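Bench log. Compound arrived from synthesis this morning; before running ITC I wanted a structural hypothesis for how cobalamin sits in the protein. Inputs:
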Amino acid sequence: MKRNTVILYHPKVDFEPYYPCYWAPLSILSVASPLVAQNKNVILLDGNLGDDEKDKSIIRENLDNCICIGVSTMIGGRQLERALNFAAFVKKLSPRMPIVFGGPLPTIIPETLLLSPLVDFVVRGQGEKPFSDLVNAIKNGCEDQNIPGVTTSRGEINGSPIFLDKNQFPPYPWELLEIERYIRQDKYLGKRVMNYVSSQGCPYKCGYCNEVASFNCRWKSFSAHRMLNEIQELKKGYGLDGVKFYDSNFFVNPRRVLEFSEGLLRGDFRLSWGASSHPKGIIKLADNLGLIRSSGLNRLLIGMESGSQASLDYISKGCTVEDNVITAEICARHKIPATFTFIVGIPGVEDDIVPTLEFILKIKRIWNEFDVKIHFYAPMPGTPLFGKAIELGYKPPGTPEEWSRYDYYIAQTPWLNKGQEKKVRMFDDFYCNFLFPPQWFIDLISRNIFSRTTYSLLRKLVGLRCKFHFYCFPYEMNWFRKITGKKVFD
Ligand code: B12
Ligand code: SF4
């Protein structure tokens, strides 16, 4: 009997400190779609569900009929470490079983991963077509042929990654997942919310960004028609009341966004949704944002990156500080809850911290309800700024094991010192909220009249701290800890 099974594994990601939950693994679900259409028996295993022993027995039961095993990984969260442990488990049971790594991390470090004897092939970029071709080649015993998008253990990179129109792929085979386990409550989007990804890549060329390295400033998406059909099916089947779009940049094509929003209104979907955008995506749609908002848009994630124009220019962000202010004003006008993200520690930029902290205060003055998150620049192989980072002394991990330990949340670059890192974290995690308290913060400190009065006094002090960027002797943090019993950060 010819082997007909493919197992796809998504290792667990450590979520703390910033991600409280996991979502449906659309990475392996996408790769599965053409194989399901070819009547292959595809099994998806998601480490996030914590069924490790069950997963191992599924592997044991199906290995004899297996063509190959695919493993998906991204940077951080110890996902690569678990991916390698999983591969070791498989190779112990079946040393000749081909193991294929794919996903955002293998895409940018294919040769490094192939240093490991546990990895036989790496698929870079969009995985649907190359993986399907590879599976069929292995099945037919001709895996030695060159398959575009597949890097082999001989270290051969076959052309640039494949990037095809996404509408030609069969629908996501949702039936392979236990959907109920991925439906969650979301503060902004509803009680029964699921994730969905409708596009890949991004046309912008931000110098630090993974999408540039992986998709070379290209963007492909599902049509609005396809999204509406698929989301309606999900809504009917699972009673969803919200969808969280995890596209890197959902708002690239204004016509598609409008068609989608009009379709939601016409079909009376009554669904909340949230998505990410470049600031210019919102500015371009400013005149239509009322309609888009009324279709259910209730959450935006926007990468503003910096309050320093020099930094925005240097990273080729494609927008100005003024554009970022206009974007915040548009969101405030339509009362769309938004998170704005920033990156500090860009290599080759003199000081991006102070202008960024000041800019964040300006944004908060526009609407207190905005969330902000500051990240430290993390050099990614293949991105335009990576060479500059190396030139300035950054030493990237060199082996699969070193990449396994990579912590995205700690500043990795030698030009940012511990004092600067601490200042940013104190501002981001505490002082910004102290000065512009969101509701959860107010609830925490409003225990009694004494705490409320002390807070009002301390707030004046914090105003001065933020004005002069003086974060030594953080008395207010001790006070906050005493009043609320909560630690601000480790
Ligand atoms: C959802 C998500 C998460 C979830 C985890 C996944 C989950 N299911 O729960 C959460 C929220 C926990 C998360 C966390 C993080 N994430 Co995240 N995340 C995403 C996001 C937004 C969507 C992933 C997705 O579903 N994509 C849709 C599918 C279809 O695309 P895909 O995964 O790329 O899969 C395609 C190919 O890669 C390939 N492929 C994928 N797997 C496989 C496997 C095989 C065998 C093959 C052949 C091919 C293949 O084929 C697929 C179809 O074409 C992506 C951005 C994005 N839009 O992709 C970032 C992304 C994956 N995250 C990223 C990062 C940096 C992180 C964090 C480190 C930090 C952060 N700020 O987000 C943390 C990690 C946690 C930690 N503690 O350190 C980066 C990864 C960069 C890299 N090179 O690895 C991405 C790409 C965002 C970005 N543009 O920078 N993330
Ligand atoms: S707009 Fe966002 S997704 Fe697009 S290249 Fe810039 S950072 Fe990356």
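What the model suggests: The domain at 183-416 is CATH 3.20.20.70 (TIM Barrel). The mean pLDDT is 94.
ITC booked for Thursday regardless.
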